[in-house]
Write a structure and sequence with these properties.
By secondary structure, this protein is mainly alpha-helical. It is built from 21 helices and two strands.
Length: 448
């Protein structure tokens, strides 16, 4: 493949991030960078990889599989090779590796990198579960506790690296495009973690007040955008962003401030005001600064429309106080046999960290979590470690169950008392404001 080194590089931006390897081969063939013999060699090597994957898929029983399965395995192989190639600085390097390294080696290298990425994503998810602001958005709660858990439970690097299982339907402020598999999920987790780092700068009650005012309890609305919009509005009113609430009088000031500004200057205004907000909050993450300013620029069309239609109150919101109980949507419960198998697997684990990881990755339902606590397979220390992985909403749900069914000497056994005691100790370790928030949520929870 000497001619691979004599042609100009293929611009990376012309290639699909999701189908990187396939689009690289296509562009290389179109530009005459691959001869027919070279393309034939690549196809032959890919068929060899497919045979290996099919053999592993059938546990060595056969290499004969359904066409749909074969297509999926081939996509997995292409995705894995593409993952390692796209890490290179340019397409010249990628084409050089294709010419000098067996594709099976590139596949194995990509698989190892994807496994590392999966481990990193699991750690990010655990941190998000532990630290994220308890939001009333049902779409967010469903994605956090069911969709993402479903992804990690069903995702398999070895035969479906290109798939994105789980229902991840909470939108990020800036849409994620041209990504799938673990690459999509880790980018998603990074974005929602960035969003959370801004959202938590204000009390959860204020943020949830915006969620209620913006109709985002039920609808899949991005909460970061609601918060950023109001915070920018407050700065444009000449006030400090120590609150998220905007009044009718504030909206009158805003209308006078921004009415009649053309699109490009308004984008600059919102971009720059988001930068001022970042500096005023003394934040240090430059990736968050870029995310805030980029998001702020996208807010302009909806604000211009609101100015034209007299609906500025639908964009710059007045916080709506809670008038309803906090709703909790639990994940589906496990079937009996998988639950028993999990209990046995946990009981057989030697290390506490392994037991905790099994709980975290396999138990999305609070009801199942309580049953697991009472199955006598976790120590007090294990339960304390599990609580560290849970968000405030789940802790509030567990506290709610403790309040709803208080222990008594006749009907409460030692395992029930054990997890209740561990939960109480865990919550008491928080600062007073966070304790009050969890207790308030616990008192007002209703199942949905």
């Amino acid at each position: 493949m000497s001619k691979l080194q004599t042609h100009s590089a293929i611009p990376k931006q012309q290639l699909s991030n999701t189908h990187y390897f396939a689009s690289l081969l296509s562009q290389a063939a179109l530009r005459g960078l691959l001869s027919r013999e070279e393309q034939k060699s690549i196809r032959a090597q890919m068929m060899q990889i497919l045979v290996l994957l099919a053999t592993r898929y059938t546990a060595g029983a056969s290499t004969s599989i359904r066409a749909q399965t074969a297509q999926s395995l081939m996509e997995c192989a292409m995705y894995s090779i593409g993952h390692t190639l796209k890490r290179l600085q340019d397409t010249d390097g990628a084409l050089h590796d294709i010419s000098t390294i067996p594709l099976k080696t590139l596949f194995d290298r990509g698989q190892a990198q994807l496994r590392d990425l999966l481990s990193h994503a699991k750690a990010q998810y655990a941190s998000l579960l532990k630290n994220s602001v308890p939001l009333l958005s049902r779409t967010w709660q469903s994605t956090l506790h069911t969709g993402l858990t479903g992804f990690f439970s069903a995702y398999h690097v070895y035969d479906a690296a290109h798939d994105t299982p789980g229902l991840i339907d909470y939108p990020t402020a800036l849409p994620l495009e041209d990504a799938t598999g673990i690459e999509y999920t880790i980018r998603y987790l990074k974005r929602v973690a960035l969003e959370d780092s801004l959202i938590r700068r204000w009390p959860a009650d204020d943020v949830n007040g915006l969620i209620r005012a913006g109709g985002a309890v039920e609808a899949p609305v991005n909460v970061f955008s609601l918060v950023l919009t109001n915070a920018i509005g407050i700065l444009l009113c000449g006030r400090q962003a120590d609150t998220l609430n905007l009044t009718r009088a504030d909206r009158t000031v805003l209308r006078k401030r921004i009415f009649g500004i053309a699109t490009a200057p308004m984008r600059r205004l919102f971009h720059d005001t988001a930068g001022r907000l970042y500096k005023g909050l003394c934040m240090r993450d430059t990736s968050l600064l870029r995310y805030m300013t980029d998001t702020a620029s996208t807010l302009v069309p909806s604000i211009q429309n609101a100015l034209e239609t007299g609906t500025l109150s639908h964009v710059f919101l007045t916080i709506k106080a809670s008038a309803n109980p906090a709703f909790f949507h639990d994940a589906p419960r496990m079937d009996d046999k998988p639950f028993r198998d999990l209990v046995n697997e946990i009981a057989d684990c030697r290390y506490a960290s392994d037991r905790v990881e099994l709980v975290q990755m396999n138990v999305p339902s609070v009801a199942d979590l309580v049953d697991l606590f009472e199955a006598n397979c976790l120590t007090q220390g294990d339960m304390a470690a599990v609580f560290q992985t849970l968000g405030d909403d789940t802790l509030a749900m567990l506290r709610h169950l403790s309040l709803q069914f208080p222990p008594d000497s006749l009907h409460t056994n030692s395992t029930e008392l054990s997890w209740r005691s561990a939960l109480k100790t865990h919550i008491e370790g928080f600062d007073a404001a966070r304790q009050r928030l969890i207790q308030e949520m616990a008192r007002n929870i209703q199942f949905v």
